[in-house]
Amino acid sequence: MTQNADLPPLAEYVDLNDLLPQVEKHFPTLDSIRWFHRNHREELGRSGAVIVVAGRLHFHPQRFTKIAAEIGREIASRS
Hints:
By secondary structure, the chain is mostly helical. The chain is 54% helix and 10% strand.
């Protein structure tokens, strides 16, 4: 396992239900967040936007929104 000093403190990560109010303008349901995670799992994990602790997903809201915008830009540039 690699150490990444760039990761935010664990206390800044939230569960899925706590992420929703912070991103619901673009991800209006829990299922929309789950879908996005399924389709972009690698990018979200690599960026530190999503981590797994004790077998549960935890999201960093600021990193999640940043990587979502970056993924959206990449998809738009391919269209």
